[in-house]
Specification:
The chain has 406 residues and is α/β, with parallel strands linked by helices. The chain has helices at 32-42, 50-63, 74-84, 102-109, 128-138, 170-180, 231-241, 264-275, 277-295, 323-326, 330-339, 368-374, 386-399, and strands spanning 67-71, 92-96, 113-117, 139-142, 145-148, 155-159, 183-187, 195-196, 199-200, 207-211, 224-228, 301-302, 310-311, 318-321, 345-346, 362-363, 375-377. The longest helix is centred in the last third of the chain and has 19 residues, at 277-295. The radius of gyration is 21 Å and the shape is globular. It binds pyridoxal-5'-phosphate. Pyridoxal-5'-phosphate binds at residues 73-75, 99-100, 102-103, 161, 187, 189-190, 211, 213, 224.
C-alpha cells in the first residue's frame, strides 16, 4: 500500500488530509528504516532485544533519571507507575481536571479515586496553589497519613499532568508532597524535553510516564516509558510489565502481571526518534514563535505563554478564542478552518464532568471549563512548512471580526 492508498477518517486527529494541513503527524526522517530493518534482519522483533534496552537508556538519560522501563503505551506506563508507587484500592490521587483522560482512567484501574484539581489560568496546568489549598483545608493528618475529610479516604499521591508541552509549577506540589508524605507521579507524556527550573520534567517526582503515540513529539506509533530514580520501583515495573514471571522456565507467577512490554521493532523506531528529539523540540518552538508573532494582534486570540520558570516544547500549539472579541467561538472557528482544509482540535473535556467521573470530588474547578470552551490546537507537526503556518495564521485573521486579511 502506498501513501495515496490510505483512506483517512476525516475526524481522526492527525489523520492525513488530502491537500489539507493536518494537526500533528509523525515525522520519521532519521534512522527509523535502518533500525527496523536491523530488527527484521536479525530476527529480534519481540519484546526483548537490543533496541528496547537502548531506547530505555536513552530515555533515562534524556529525563536525567537512573532507570527507564519501556511499555506498550503511556496509559500502561501510568497504570504500572501507580501500582509500583503503592497506590491502593480506595486511596485518592489528586489529578488535573484538564487533561487527556488516560491518567484518570489509570487511577481507576488500580481501584483508587481521582480528586480533580483545577487548571490555572496562565499556563493552563494543574493549579498548584489550589492543590496545596485542598490538602491544607480539606484533609487532615491522622495516624501518620493524610485523610480527605469529606470522603474519609486516604490521600496517597499527586498526579500532575504537564499538558501541551509546558510544565506544571512543581515546586509547591513537591513541597506539599514532602510535608504530607505523598507520592508524586508525573504524567510527562506530553512534555518530553520540557524543563521546570532547568530540570527535565519526569525527573521531579518519584516516578514519571512518557508516551510515544502517533501525535507525541517523538513517536513509536504506540509506546510508553516509566522513568524513575528508584531502582526497586524500576525492577518491580519490569516484573509487572512482563507478566510477573518469577521463573522464566517453569511459568511460575506469584502475582498478577501484565503483558505491557514494548517490542524491539517499535523500540528501534524509538531510538531513531530519540536521536532527533532536539530537532523536534526546536521545530515545535520555531512554529510556536511564528504563530505567536502572527496571531498576537488578533483581537480575542490568546497565544500560549511560557512561564519564566519553564522551558516549554510547545508540543501542541494551542490558543484561546474569546467568542465576543474574536467574533466567533472556538468550535465555529474549528469548522471554518476545516472548510479551508485545516485541521484543528479543541482541548479535552474536563474530566470531572464526564459520565464515569461525575460522582468524584472536584476541588474548586472553575478555570478548566473556560479553557475547554475556548481552547483550540492548531496544526504544528514537527517540520510543518512555514508556508502552512502562514496559511493557518491568515485563515485565523480572515475569520476574525474587525481585521482585514493579510
Ligand atoms: C496527558 C496524557 N496522558 C496519557 C496519555 C496516554 O498515552 P498513550 O496514548 O501512549 O497510552 C496521553 C496520550 O495519549 C496523554 O496526552
Amino acid at each position: 500500500m502506498n501513501a495515496t492508498d490510505r483512506t483517512a477518517i476525516p475526524s481522526e486527529p492527525g489523520a492525513p488530509l488530502p491537500d489539507g494541513i493536518p494537526l500533528a503527524v509523525p515525522a520519521l526522517r532519521g534512522n527509523e528504516w535502518r533500525y527496523v530493518k536491523e530488527c527484521l534482519d536479525t530476527n529480534w522483533v519481540s519484546s526483548v532485544g537490543p533496541f528496547v534496552e537502548r531506547f530505555e537508556r536513552m530515555a533515562a538519560q534524556r529525563v536525567d533519571v537512573q532507570h527507564a522501563v519501556a511499555t506498550v503505551n503511556g496509559t500502561a506506563a501510568l497504570h504500572v507507575a501507580l501500582l509500583v508507587a503503592g497506590v491502593q484500592p480506595d486511596d485518592e490521587v489528586l489529578v488535573s481536571a484538564l487533561t487527556f483522560i488516560a491518567p484518570v482512567n489509570a487511577i481507576r484501574y488500580v481501584g483508587a479515586w481521582p480528586v480533580f484539581i483545577d487548571a490555572e489560568p496562565d499556563f493552563w496546568q494543574m493549579d498548584a496553589q489550589k492543590a496545596v489549598e485542598f490538602l491544607e483545608r480539606e484533609c487532615r493528618w491522622r495516624d501518620g497519613a493524610l485523610w480527605n475529610r469529606t470522603s474519609g479516604r486516604r490521600v496517597r499521591a499527586i498526579l500532575p499532568v504537564h499538558i501541551l508541552g509546558h510544565p506544571c509549577d512543581m515546586g509547591p506540589l513537591l513541597e506539599a508532597a514532602r510535608q504530607y508524605d505523598l507520592t508524586v507521579i508525573e504524567d510527562a507524556t506530553e512534555g518530553l524535553g520540557a524543563r521546570y527550573r532547568d530540570r527535565p520534567i519526569g525527573s521531579l517526582g518519584d516516578i514519571a510516564c512518557l508516551s510515544f503515540n502517533g501525535n507525541k513529539i517523538i513517536t513509536t506509533g504506540g509506546g510508553g516509558m516509566i522513568v524513575t530514580d528508584r531502582e526497586d520501583w524500576a525492577r518491580r515495573a519490569r516484573y509487572l510489565t512482563t507478566q510477573a514471571k518469577d521463573d522464566p522456565l517453569e511459568y511460575i507467577h506469584n502475582e498478577i502481571g501484565y503483558n505491557y512490554r514494548l517490542t524491539n521493532v517499535l523500540a528501534a523506531i524509538g531510538v531513531a526518534q530519540m536521536e532527533q528529539l532536539d530537532d523536534c523540540i526546536a521545530s515545535k518552538r520555531r512554529t510556536a514563535r511564528i504563530y505567536s508573532e502572527r496571531l498576537a494582534d488578533i483581537p480575542g486570540i490568546t497565544p500560549p505563554r511560557q512561564a519564566d520558570w519553564a522551558f516549554s516544547t510547545f508540543w501542541l500549539y494551542t490558543v484561546l478564542v474569546d467568542e465576543v472579541q474574536y467574533g466567533m467561538g472556538s468550535r465555529t472557528l474549528l469548522r471554518r478552518l476545516e472548510d479551508a482544509s485545516i485541521q484543528s482540535r479543541p482541548l479535552w473535556h474536563p474530566i470531572h464532568s464526564l459520565p464515569p467521573y461525575r460522582g468524584c470530588q472536584a476541588y474548586r474547578v472553575e478555570v478548566a471549563d473556560r479553557l475547554y470552551a475556548q481552547g483550540l490546537s492548531l496544526p504544528c507537526s514537527v517540520g510543518i512548512p512555514d508556508e502552512q503556518v502562514e496559511r493557518v495564521s491568515a485563515a485565523m485573521r480572515t475569520s476574525a471580526k474587525n481585521t482585514t486579511a493579510l
